[in-house]
Amino acid sequence: MNRARLGLPVLKNLDCLLISMIGMAIILLYTRHGGIGISPDSIAYLSVARNVIAHGAAVDYMLRPLVDFPVCYPFFLSVAGMISRADPLVAAPWINGLLMACIIFMMGYLIDSFSEATRLYRCIVLLCIALSPSLLEVYSMLWSETVFILLNILFIAAFYHYLQKRTISSLLICGLLASVACITRYAGVTLIGTGLMLLVFDNSLEWQRKLKHCFFFGFSAVSLLVVNLLRNASITGSLTGPRVRGILSLGDNIIYTGRVICDWLPVPGRQPQLVSGIMIFIFLLICILFLLRNRFGKAQVSSENCFAALFIVYTVFIIGISTVSHFEQLNNRLLSPLYIPMLVSLTSWLPGSLRKLRPVYFKPAAGMLLLLAFFFLRYQCQQVARMYNDVKDSGIPGYTEDSWKASETARFLRVHRNYFSADYDIYSNAHEAAYFNGGIRAESLPHRRDQNDIRDFFSEDGFYLIWFDNFSDNELVKFKTIRQNAIVEKKYDFKDGDIFFIRPRHSSALRQ
To answer: How many CB atoms within 10 Å of residue 329?
Structure first.
């Protein structure tokens, strides 16, 4: 009897465990050729993690304190590197595979808490997560979203536990998880907004107790973020590093969000009216579902409503912040934390609705939904297969791709690191690539809109410029501008780049 009882939980969650292993295996297979994908942000995370392991200092490859990004993810990588005794770059595929497996397994636990879910529904949703092209793109890269999405799931699990207990201790755990999310990505403030939204709409709490719980949650949720921001301000005088005013309108960002969501769904077409209309429809539908659950008292112990609240808050935040502040265009990476909340919010009510149908309607409706699920999973499998075919022979796009490994410019930097004179600064149009491929500490070219940096740039006596042809950033000062304001001397000419020595026209170097 005892053996059977011990075996039941294992058998009950065997499907979750199996699908978790499938998700992990996909990540490992996808990253098999060249390893984990590396972007400029990845190099900042990686360099800090390496410096923490080697020197105990949270500084990047330029030996500057990490300010533009929160500190948690590089520390996570450093801890993982120390435990595995491997460089975080080498261990990253296994780290991300395990993170993906944890997300799928935790989602299995949460779906069991849904008021009207079935085992078949759970398996379908978990497969949609394991086979998601959106999550595959994120978990094949060295990005902080890999930990951030897991923290979102853990937060919802913790908040569901709080909804059952309504204790201060369980609420403080929710606040701690939100606080850790804030120092993983600054977008973690959306978990603070989610928690406060759920508390405000909780009709089971009288207003005095509601205010008390909001205070305890809010105070604990901002604690680590405040420490991180004060640390940034004391070191650099800036809370989150330099930020630029937004250049895209609200309508533009809604269109970009709609295009990403339509890519997640088998929706053809890229017309602005279509994609923005679909995005707005989904957002309003999830808002209505959230309000209806609260209206009829179904949200008091509902983890489904936690997903809906997270979708609403994160959508408003990411579109709003990208409108008032300029950073990379809204894309799958920035919107990936919405995928699971959207999937759950749009489907969690379906099993219960099916049960309420008359027997004559039940089978046709169930058959139609199963057919839709089949086509959606088939669409995802096709997308994943296409993504794998694109990387299986050359690696994931980024600095671990074969084209970068075979780069003549990168090879020169690896072999001739001591070529550059210490008397002059080094600049590059891809300074992260100079570090990652050659260990060279190079400054970034100034941004075109930052006139102060441009004046400082051209006030130097002379400097080296490492130019990579296969990298383009329209935000940086153009090479044409450099030629107009300086004497350019080419030192090396490669197939994919050049090394120059630059003498600004009014520098003292011209008078020597």
So the answer is: 11
